[in-house]
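User: Predict the structure for this protein chain, please.
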Amino acid sequence: MRETKKARPSDVATAVVFAAVLFLLCILTFILPQRDFSENENRSLTTLGSLTAGGAKAVFDGSFESAAGDFFRDQFPLREGMLKLRSLSDVLTLRMETAGVMYGKDGYQIPRPDQSCAAAKGNLDAIDELRASLEKDGKALVFAVAPRPADALYPYYPAGYDGSDLERGRKAVFDGCSYAVDLLGALSPSIDAGEYVWYRTDHHWTTEGAYLAACAILSEFGKELPGMEYFKVETASGEFYGTTYSKTMSPLTESDVIEYYRYGGDNAFLTEIVDTGETFDGFYDRSYLEKKDKYSSFFGGNNARVRVTKKGGEERQTLLVIKDSYAHAVMPFLAMYYDLDVVDPRYYTSSVYRLSLEDGCSAVLILCGVDTVTENQSLARVRFGTGG
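Assistant: Here is the predicted structure, written as structure tokens:
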């Protein structure tokens, strides 16, 4: 009969200590002050109150189990420190990727895009229908598509990764819409030249990238922006850590710089957040520069509807802009030629076509990223809306 091997006292002590630490952390999860919002991740967190909100019904339908997992993930003590340790380990072990974000050359953090294209056909069909309706009204529609970081930052990919498997989303957009304007072409020469066209820690283009995109967009309307030397570059913040950093939390990350391209008279505009009635002069809500989400200093971030008008009573045409957040840094350039009526279809649920009749716009611009077209169904309601 084989003799049973006894556990060594050191092994038992290790197991007991590990269990005790785990138990203590679980207890601390419940008794420490809970956070209901993560500024770093820019999202609401699961709290004990939301965990128990479903009552007994949640236990039986399985939602309690899912919420419990979210609660421990969001409220676990030292969570951000452990995330930083994970990202550091991924770099030191040459894995070079954390939470779906690749660590590229020159400090670029490049998110791998979702390859789902389930929403593309519905969105593109709705855009086609909107375009046909606008043409009957004598109004032009320009559909401009911003590249994803993985599309734009090919020169900065980690060694050995060719990115050929990331083309599906772009193919769905440009094969499905012959008149879509691919803004990657306006950015590529500057990216290849090593210019600061894309943030290293965020999924958006920089203000230089936005300027290049605006040049391409306005040329579709027969207008031309002044050369870059026309603008006075103002450094708004040198401490910007964007959305991709929020996923990696890498302690090796260097901050990005947010710049405003200022021009004479750019404070002679009134920006109105229609959702809230809030107004401010110019294009920038500088209160966001004191927060983590500094990119939202452009026009106050994501809102259902925003109006931008030039003060002084000057007669100007109105451009209706249907957008996602890529448009925020572009709009100061568009405002040089147009008053702007701006809607975000992720939050604005009424018919954009009906709005085009009500506001008397002269033309319509749809400006959004590839992912908005392929993954988010909000563009499918631009013709008829869902809110009446």
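The longest helix spans residues 9-31.
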